[in-house]
Amino acid sequence: MAKNTVLSARTQKEENHKITMVTAYDYSTAKLMDQAGVNMILVGDSLGNVMLGYEDTISVTMEDMIHHGAAVARGAKDAMVVIDMPFMSYQTSVYDAVVNAGRLMKEGRGNAVKLEGGVEVCPQIKAIVAAGIPVCAHLGLTPQSINAFGGHKVQGKTEAAAKKLIADAKAVQEAGAFAVVLECVPAKLAEHITKELEIPTIGIGAGAGCDGQVLVYQDLLGMFSDFTPKFVKRFANVGELMTEGVKKYIEEVENGTFPAKEHEYAIDEDIIGRLY
Ligand code: KIV
Q1: Which phi and psi (to 5°) does residue 22 adopt?
Q2: H helix runs in the chain, sequence order
């Protein structure tokens, strides 16, 4: 398979070939996701929740994103690596946005960055794109604004909110975004936006009418139980397998069956004899 790029994402939309994106935050997981054949790996700031145990994504830093982004980039051969810009790394100014997007590319080795917001962050999107960095936008329930939303709520349900979402989607496309994530948006509205845009939409809790789908890997593999949104489907129960595996390990260490002879390194018996 060839490397996935902004161009292949656009071609997939044109050819009605769904785009697959999953999150990853480390080398080994990225390698597995890449080998499974996903088009894009998102180093999401959801790492604050699922990797670092925070309640939200607010505390995630540039250093966190660079550290995890670089690990993922080392494991991803064909998948396009998109790294989230953390809270306050781009909202503060166009200058900060370009500098921090640059760091995610140079130090984090991403292929693109993702940031949250519509019309209000279009100057940032334009400047980052002008610097040669692909930008994926993120609209709907944008977790960095969770305090402003007052909780995890579906977005775009009133006529005014739906119209604002459509205007934001058109604005980020106009600003140069190569794709847009739609999170927690009514399915029919997401489908409408998808038809209106030339760039691909990638949905999470936005129905089947989007050009692609993204999920947090711990959600799709059953490895995170603190909070499970309605839109999550569990495709495997890796969490249960891990617990079972670790329980067997504990049992065998405790009863002495592990390590067995085949796990040991040998030494000349004479040498051992001389040690006593
Ligand atoms: O941080 C993340 O994982 C995300 C996805 C939920 C789209 O932004």
Answers
A1: -135, 160
A2: 6-14, 27-36, 47-50, 62-75, 94-106, 122-130, 146-149, 159-175, 187-196, 217-220, 238-255, 269-275
- Residue 23 in contact with ligand 1 by CB distance below 6 A: yes
Same domain, 193 and 250: no
Return d(Cα 212, Cα 241) in angstroms, integer. Answer: 29
- Which of 204, 213, 232 is the pocket-test mutation for ligand 1 (most atoms within 8 Å of CB)? 204
This prediction's pTM: 0.97
Mean pLDDT taken over the chain: 97
Backbone angles phi and psi of 21, in degrees to 5: -135, 135
Domain around 250: 242-273
| Percentage of the chain lying above the pLDDT 70 cut | 100
Q: Does ligand 1 have an atom closer than 6 angstroms to the CB of 116? A: no
Position 194 pLDDT exceeds 90: yes
Split at pLDDT 50, 70, 90, the class of 225 is confident
Residue 250 and residue 175 in one domain: no
* Amino acid in position 7: L
H-type alpha helices, 88-211 = 94-106, 122-130, 146-149, 159-175, 187-196
